[in-house]
Structure formats: structure tokens, C-alpha cells
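Hi D.,

Good news: the full-assembly prediction came through. Inputs first.
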Amino acid sequence: MQVADWLDTIPSQDEPIRPDDGSDLSRRRAELDRVAAEALERVGAALRADDLPLRVPKSRLADLARCERLTVARARDAAADTNVSVAALKGVVLDQFVAHQLMVGRVVEPVPTAVSMLRVSGRELEADAVDSLDADHAEELLGPLATAVADGWSGLDPAWAPRTQSRATVVLADGRCDCTGVIDVELGGPGTGRPAVLVEVKSGAPAGDHADEVYLYALLVALRDQRPPAVVARWYPGSVPAALAVGPGVLDAAQARLSDGIRRWAELSAGRTPTELAGRWCTWCPDADRCPSAPADRPLAGRAGAARNVPADDDGPQWEPDRDDDR
Amino acid sequence: MTADRQERVDLAATARRRLVDSLDQVLGDLLRPESGRRIPRSDRMKVSEFDLGERCPRRGAHPADDFVETATTARRRLGLLALRRLGDDACAETDLPAAVAAVLDSGDGLAPGLADWVAGLDRAGRAAVGAAAVTWAESLRRTMGATRRPIRWSDPGPWTWDVPERIVSLSVKVDATGTADVSGDVLLWASGATDPLIQRALAAHLALVRAMSTNRAPLRVAIAVPATGTVLRVPVDRDLLDLGVDRVVEHVALRARPDTAPARPGRGCRHCHLLDVCEPGLAHAADLTPRSTT
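Then the structure:
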């Protein structure tokens, strides 16, 4: 089913969307504000100047749900990591292809299109990674993505006013803590006469924690727009979007997870010893070679930028660290 | 002239005197042109709103000169031109992607450097920058649409004011203007900065440059932050203009004597163009090891 057809199944709102009456979302914001202020108060002087504002984006929350040591290690090495994994590359290119489809139509030549869009978007690492692939492998990797996007995203009614890579940020504790989400595709919402729909574009296999990501987006957009989106969804190539109507339960879950993340990240930033929890993420953990909890026989992750012979991602791990597309 | 209007004129005059006097104090004869010599703007030290957002004085004193246009840098100017093209209907239900495409096709209103960059893009590159511009503009018009106030989207070119007797120009790009009443203008700037202190500093710079350019202080500055859905409305008073003057003087003083600018290490060090020659920055970058994992 195409996204356009799926959108037609979302009930249109019978009456104009009204801003929140101020109670529920204001209460949620105030509670998050309190949590952030108290977390910062507890760690106080142990934080370094550059730990503020305390940043708790999507990727950090996902890492915290896996392993605290992984979270600390990834935060430390984020700027220095110049490797691009196959799975990460596919994810970034898929986002670009969706933007291409929505802006100018079908992607005809996947490889040069990917390189051009990545370079124009300032993603030189990923563009170089595609360039480093041999032509057949690049086509094998990216061709199916282009086909899937054309199949899934063509025919979208412009009245949905699609926006790609749009941001929603909640700023807490007088600017000393924030959480930002970059939503792959936002559709409808105020001014369009259509319900607000958020879609997270996923290149890999469905995973349980993907739902947490869109719950977070629902909360961030609700706080930004003063009204919750109607639906959040994840789109996987070749699939019907996995959608969920946004109700109080979704917002409650996201708020609880974000609150927990703020508390823990404040403590870790202040120097608390992180706990360790082995899992498939050890494959990607920068500390795996010195972490006593990491299994010695963990598989190695495929890297697209490291060599011309990129392992097919079927041979590599399916799990991939989350990205925060801040560029 | 009404009392309110006279008050705005007086505010601008006071700020101007304070700026000139403060620069005299910190610069002496530095950055002073030879008597009677006219200095073209391209040779002047330009102080823009972007310079004032820099948290590290050393980095602020040594601006990077490796600017590369990307979708992220171009989206504001393209999106703003699209909103201008839509005119008064920009906050209504209008075809923004078509307006962005028209800007990309025609190149009308683009500064020469941006026009050349856009002209060199292939279809995929145009899709990338077009999508970024649509999202930027749509986010802004939604944020402002919620206010239901009339907006006049501005010429995206900068307002520039040359400081008298100094080789210094202040510049700012304002996204939109409106007229609240006969006493003054309301200025709008869309910001990605979520830090309240940076937002206020931005507002101060906008108000200062506008006041210097028109000899009348604007009434109010609005900083729209689409990512948070908020619009910060800052009345332009003496405190705000003083903040604008202080920030400009501080920045110009650093740029005039760049070797004395102290480093303020932080998250940006690892990406900084000065890292190789900045000891505090190097030390800080090396110190980013986790304190609790061994």
C-alpha cells in the first residue's frame, strides 16, 4: 500500500483542530521542567561547563535504554567517528530519496542522485562512502531503496504539505536542558485541514524500540504545536506504515522515558559510573574492546566507508545506532 | 512628531552616542580610516548577528573563512524568498513547494554567490535544497500563522550601517517587518537557537542595527523559534539597545586584537578550525574521555 492510500484511511477531523486548552500539555511541560531542574540541581557543580545544556536527543534515549556505558562512549566519540556503516548509509540515503520523491518526483539514477543530495546536504562522509563503493555494489545497495520509495511515496496529495527533516525541540530548566527530534516526514496539521501525521522512515527491519522513537516525536510535536499529532507511524520499505493514533498513553510513555533519560544522563554527565549491559549493540560500542561485559565473540559491523568491498548488510548485524540528523 | 515617535528617535540617538563613545574607549585609533578616505564595505569589519552568537571569544575573533554553501546554509534565504513571492498570503494555505521551485528556477532575488551555487545544482541537488527550504519556510509560517498577525516578509538582503569614523559595519538580515502603529516597527527573525540568552542577544542586535539605520528604534523584536513553536517578543528599550551595544563593542574589541582573545573551551572545540593552534581547545578535546569508564 502506498503512503498516499494509507493517509486516506486516517479519519479527517470533523472540526478544526483547536489548540490545547492549556491544561494537559502545560502540565506535561511543567513536569518535564521540574524533572530537568531537579536532575541538574542534584548533580550541581559536578557538571562541566560544556555539559550544558544537557542534551537528551532521540539517539541518547535509545542508547540509555540499551547500555549506559554505550551511551557514554558514543557521546564521547561522536565527533571523532568517521566510519559510515552500511545500515547507517542506507538510512540516510532513504531519507534523501523520500525528500526527492516529495520535492521533484521519482529517483531515476539512484547512485548519482544519492551522491548529489548528500553533498548538497553537507553529508560529505556519507557521499564519500557511496563514492567508495564499486558501481555494481552501489547500485545493488541503493537501487532497491529508490524503487521502494517510488512505490511507497508517489501520488501524495500536495495538500498534505509534506515537510522533511523538520525539528521539534523542548527546552527545559531555563535552557539548561533540551531534547530535539528531527522528524523524517511531517504531514498535514494546522492550516492544511488535515490531521497531523508524523512518519519515521526506516531502512532496516522493524524493531521494538522504533516505537519509542515515534512516541517521543509525538510528545515533542505536541509541546511544539500545542496540540498532539493525530497519528505517528513508521514506514519500512515495502510495507504499510505501522501507525498508531496518539492518545494520552503515547504521551505518558514518551514523557516517562524522557524523564528517566534526563535524570540518568545528568548523573552520567556528572561522572557517575555507567552500568553495563551486554547486547547486540556491543558490536557498535566504542568501548567494546575494553568493556568486561562485552562478549568476546561479538560480530563485527559492516562499514561502508572503510573499504570498497562493503559487506552486504544481510551479512552484518541488523541493529544500527540511532542517528540525530542535526545537519 | 508624536511623543512615542520622539521617544524612539531619542532611544536611537542615545544608543548611537554610547556605541561611538564605547568604541572610542576600547579601540583608540585602531580601525580608524585615514582622514577623508572612504572605505568600501567589502574592506570593513562586518559584525553580523551570526558573529554575536559565538560563545568562544577566540573563535569569534578568528572567524572561519571556509564557508561552503549547503542546503542547511541556503534554506533560510530560499525559503524567505518563497514566502515573499507568496506575499500577503504566505501564512495561508498556499503552495509553498511551487514558490520554492519558482525561486530556484528563476534565481530572482538571489545574491550572486547563492545564485551561482543554485545554477550549478543538478535535479537531485535541487531536490535536496528545495526540500530543506520548504521545511524551513513551512515551519516558520506555521509558527507565525498561529499569531494571526499581518506579516511583511522582508528583502533577505542585509541591512548595513557603517559606524562613523571606524572601519566597522554592523549588519543584520531581518526576515519580516510589520508596523505595530505609527510609533515604530516590529521586526521578526527566525532562529534555530533555543538558548534564551542567545535569543535576547539576537533581538538586541536586530534592534540596534535597525535603530542605527533609520535613526529610530523599532518598537519590538520578535524572535520566532519554529523548532519550539515559540515567538519571543522583546520590547525595544534602553536596556535592550545597551545589550546590543555592549555585545558589538565586545566583539569588535576582540576582532581588533585577535591575538589577545581568550579561548573558552567547550563542545565546539573538536570541530573548530582553530583546534590545531589552540592549546586550551586541544586540552579540552583530549579531556573528553569519560570520567567514569576505564
